[in-house]
Amino acid sequence: MTRTPIPPPHRSASLPTPTPTANGSASSSSLSTTTTSTKGADVPEEQKAGWTSFIKSLAKMTGDLSSMTAPPFILSPVSLTEFPAYWCEHPQVFAQISEGKNEFERTELVLKWFICTLKGQYTTRNEKMGSEKKPLNPVLGELFYGVWPDVNGRGETRLIVEQVSHHPPITAYYIENKKAGVKLQGHSGQKTAFTGTAINVKQSGHAVLTVTPKNGGPEEKYLITLPKLRIEGIIWGSPYIELTDSNAIQSSTGYTAQIDYKGKGYFTGKPHSYKASISKGSKTQQSYEGQWTGVSYIGGSKGPVFFDAHLPKEEVSVKPIEEQGEWESRRLWDKVAKGIKGGNYDLAGVEKSRIENDQRQRRKDEAAASSNWQHAHFTYVDSDPEYQSLAALLHDKLTPAHEDGYIFKGNI
């Protein structure tokens, strides 16, 4: 079927994650500067009136912020559909998971890989764009394809992403390195609320990592729940992200990794801090702590280095825009992205409105024809069996026993 690109209204005021797309860390000095700034100090002069109106609208909102429209200067030139690429910006770490010699070692490698994904997913836009930016809302059916090539025999890693829902917005993804015997399948969405000084984002969805050990052991599954986040610096027009609360990684082997997040003034007194532990049953096997944007350690701050987030990342490779299909993210949003990057918000607005209007018309046509959009790469299930079996091992009262999912249809 020929698909005409038709994206959604620009609706969310959330500034999420993943999933996976963009780049940088808010240092402790930048955070302290932000918290002492005059309101709106980082807002471009020509945008201050719009920013003031936006903050007033936020203050009046209750519940989810899905109907909010962010001011142009805070928009990212990148679609949310690209965010799952953050899961594999360290493809060597991803590939090495299957090389663990035993169940504990592989669980530790999964935890290390997960920690290595956080900086890219949640803070790197600060370095690249000056502050956290709101990604473009994807069109239903929008696609993103990428690859990390085989380097030093690690195997090629491929990525497929599809926007599988618009109301609510949900992104499904599949990543696989066949040679390494490692693959990841998941989906994510966000619910946002303004609390007076910050936007709280609850991420919905989960991911399941499948590992075939190199030593010939049986296949292992790892359920990954998603952390919550808080977007600070809204009042000053210089947003940045902190992860909050906790999330878990549950292995089919019985090992559980628990990750707890706190910002500045807790644990190490530094922003983007975390503590983690791996346990089996009631016994803790090992602990880890540090900054997920910096260095973390095994067993405490004086222990061996667990992971250094300053390790260079590898951007995903994609086809040139002129070779992409009309539903692929970078081709679809090309003119909007150029307008944002060049500061031509009139161009960006016109192109975005065109895409939004096409999307609305497509939904009207489908309703008139009593038809539904057909997913290209994923099949929806109202209860994900892999999630159900792994969640039962987690013994966490806050983790639902059942959750829906999107199952990848075929070969990558």
Briefly summarize what is shown.
The protein is of the alpha+beta class. It is built from 9 helices and 18 strands.
Please explain how this structure is put together.
It contains 9 helices and 18 strands. The strands form 3 sheets. Strands 3, 4, 5, 6, 7, 8, 9, 10, 11, 12, 13, 14, 15 and 16 form a 14-stranded antiparallel beta sheet that branches. β5 and β6 form a beta hairpin. α7 runs antiparallel to α8. It has 412 residues and is α+β, with helices and mostly antiparallel strands. The N terminus is likely disordered.
Q: Structural class of the helices, strands and pairings?
A: alpha+beta
Outline = globular
Secondary-structure element string: HHEHHHEEEEEEEEEEEEEEEHHHEHE
Low-confidence stretches: 1-37
Output mean pLDDT.
84
For the record, give the distance between the C-alpha atoms at the N and C termini, rounded to a whole number: 20 Å
Report the strand count: 18
Describe the sheet with the most strands: 14 strands, antiparallel
The whole-angstrom Rg is 21 Å
Report helical residue fraction. 10-25%
Strand content: 25-35%
Give the number of helices: 9
